[in-house]
């Protein structure tokens, strides 16, 4: 109950700040519309209004404050406008409609999951190699770190162009970008987890004459599972970001990235914010699902109560 109240308090504070921020952000547009509607606006001319700050405009035109939360194309939409857009585009549209966020979310989710699986498998294999091979530890790990210093927004168009030039289209280019972002946390987490058994545990296995393979399956791998799930939670969120970024340079017509692009083209900020919240909700659901799987697996292993 205390946690719920704490979360509710934070959400209420964010909503209050959001509503307050809408007033100065949207006041210029609201006053232009009010002037066209015949209202008395202070200052009277658009040039004078441009020369003074938004806060001063709000104080001189208090009557316009409610309208800043109800503009059709606001600079910053109010929370209730985003909530209405989310409701309309998820529950009031057929899921096969291109105006449905469920449809666009599914397109992005498909690329996300494929990229996540590729990135996870690649990350686990690299981690196993790094832990068991000094050469791979010295050669691969630094390059894995360096690869994450390249901005994905610059790398994504190059990946798309290269894959398109060799005839690879559809979901795979986006999945490759997702895998690129998701494999690194898996590598780091698994390396840490596979190296987590202490010297006494490893010595105990040696006294039993256990092979390296037996040591891996019976000690290193079980010890790495908690680290793996922590990495997977980061990886799935990064994979979703990669899928959305992968939709941007292709001019995609489906997917959450496509909704963001369409919203930016036509000045539909409400649509942009709704797509952003849909992406956040999708990421939260995926991380929550992984958390549930983690609890089940660790409980069966006897690690968690």
The SS-based structural class is: mainly alpha
CATH class of the largest domain: Mainly Alpha
Q: Strand fraction band?
A: under 5%
CATH topology of the largest domain: MetI-like fold
| CATH homologous superfamily assignment of the largest domain | MetI-like
Please mark out the parts with pLDDT under 50 across 5 or more consecutive residues, or reply none: none
Rounded to an integer in angstroms, the radius of gyration calculated over CA atoms is 26 Å
Shape: elongated
Q: Which sheet architecture does the biggest sheet show? A: none
For the record, the count of structural domains works out to: 2
Strand/helix succession: HHHHHHHHHHHH
State the total count of DSSP E strands.
Answer: 0
| Straight-line N-to-C gap | 21 Å
The CATH architecture of the largest domain can be given as: Orthogonal Bundle
Amount of helix: over 70%
Tally of separate helices? 12
Name the average pLDDT.
90
Structure description:
- The chain is an all-alpha fold.
- The protein has two domains: 76 residues, no CATH class; 201 residues, MetI-like (MetI-like fold, Orthogonal Bundle).
- 76% of the residues lie in helices and 0% in strands.
- It has twelve helices and no strands.
- The longest helix has 36 residues.
- The relative contact order is 0.10.
- The model has no long low-confidence stretch (mean pLDDT 90).
Question: What's the quick description here?
Answer:
Its main location: membrane. The chain is mainly alpha-helical. The chain is built from twelve helices and no strands.
List keywords for this structure.
305 residues; mainly alpha; MetI-like fold; 2 domains; 12 helices; elongated; MetI-like; cell membrane; transport
